[in-house]
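job 3f2a | input accepted
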Amino acid sequence: MDTPPENPTPPPQSEPTPPAGGPSFANNPYAKQYMSNPYGQMTNTHPADMPIAIIIIIFGGLGALLMLFTGLLGGAVSAAGAGAGSGVVAGAGGLIMLYSILGLVCSVGSIIGAVGMLKAARWGFMVVGAFGLIGAIIGLLHFNIISVVVGVAQAIYCGMRITGQLGGKPS
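job 3f2a | predicted structure (171 res):
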């Protein structure tokens, strides 16, 4: 009776040969993820998510502080104008306060959305994209081209991430 060896070696297997010109990723919807991740693991993050989210958090925090200061200044101008009997000055101070409150809400919302981006959460990209568009519209009203470009870029990036055209779809 023959006894099998203790460590049997498997028979050699032939590797499938790729087509001429190398493998084709044209029909593979996950090609971008596999090519960017050498281990072939599916991920729902993109390398740009973290730096973009950190930049949004930093500038959102600076914007929130600026809007808080401007709102306090607008309130002081409004109170001084009302105390002096000047309705125009009081009205201007009130408009400054309203604009500051809108800016503060946008800044805080962007910070919250950026935290969601860091977690690769779908809602985070949606919030940042929405506030990016709001910032672009406000920039159009003030003829601020930098604000328009940054807001549109945020919205495009978040839209591409949500649809899965750039990296995996966020969860």
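job 3f2a | The mean pLDDT is 80.
job 3f2a | closed
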